[in-house]
Amino acid sequence: MITAEDRARAADLLAAFVAAGATRVETELLQPAGTLLDLYGEDIRARAFTTQDPLAGEAMLRPDFTVPVVQAHMSGGADPARYCYMGEVFRRQEIDEGRPREYLQVGYEVFDRADPAATDAEVFDLLHRALAPWDPIPALGDLGLLIAAVDGLTTSDKRRAALRRHIWRPVRFRRLMERFAGQTTTPAKRAALLARLATEDAAALIDAAGPAVGLRDGEEIAARLAALAEDVTTPPLSRTEAEVIDALLGMETPLSHALSPIRDLAVDLPGLDVAADRLEARAEALDRRGHAPHTLPFAPARGRSAMEYYDGFTFTLSARGRPDLPALATGGRYDALTAVLGQGRSIPAVGGVIRPGLLGGLT
User: Fold this and answer.
1) What pLDDT digit, counting tens, does each position of 12-64 carry?
2) 273 assigned ligand-binding residue
3) Contacting residues for 83 by C-beta, under 8 A, at least 6 apart
4) Cis peptide before 80 (omega within 30 of 0)
5) Is residue 174 annotated as involved in ligand binding?
6) 66: annotated binding-site residue?
7) Which of 79, 130, 221, 265 is buried deepest, with most CB atoms within 10 A?
8) Can you state the angle between helices 218-231 and 157-165, rounded to 10 degrees?
9) Maximum distance among all alpha carbons in the chain?
10) Per the annotation, does 302 bind a ligand?
11) Is 65 marked as binding a ligand?
12) Is 0.90 topped by the overall pTM?
């Protein structure tokens, strides 16, 4: 339950963000479902409350603020711009999980082309200072490194695209890596299907299967069969490149110790160099704001299970001595989201949110 104390604390946080130069914005409580489904696919239904409007169609109770704020900015916001907001968000939870289905968020978003490393540090520093009375534990990540590594793999465009699509789904990503690296055995049913595709036409196989069941039509099924046949002829990922991905997924170190091993990994995947440059610039920007890199825990893959629009810097600020609680604050960079929602236009963007309802019981 959201209490009066939660709202008062949220108002104080919002005032601090306004004082930092942000413009307060509001977003509708009911969001069009189409945009969220386009971004996340049907998976969003498992964690959002949906309803049906007789005029506007399917809608969802606001699962977060970032998407509508980005939409509003890309339709005519200033450049650069800083926004802040406060309000309820809604997430479906299993009854026995004990997590709230409605809670407050207070957030700060920056759209600025000038210096992405500086704005990363700005957002992290502002939220860290806002939570200073609770002495939060910081932790940083950088999904841009993992994305750059995937984009640099010596394999087919389709395999790279599949891995990119599932970066935010760790189990599925791992299975794909194992399959593409030739570390798993082809399931018997798929092997039998591939054997038939080698000698039979896809249309004949579809006809022989009987009436279609599900949402895919014949053309989509035929395209899927062609993709399977093409994939089986693609050479496996090199062991060296697969090991680079594994190293990034398993890395946990102070930020100050991360750059050297990442530069070493870039010898085998040169595409990592640019992402490493961004990481180095961010570390320097954080240091200028008083956050010494040797005090900041860093793991490139941190943030993979958060919102799927994060594609670069990520961070969490957690309650000290309370590992049972969700993070008090989360944030990150989402440059690609602005391109998706900007209909051909884009701008570097980074933001973060605080959950004031978690602060009341902390000392």
Assistant:
1) 999 999 999 999 999 998 888 877 777 776 667 777 788 887 877 888 888 88
2) no
3) 22, 23, 24, 25, 69, 73, 77, 108, 109, 111
4) yes
5) no
6) yes
7) 130
8) 110
9) 70
10) yes
11) yes
12) no
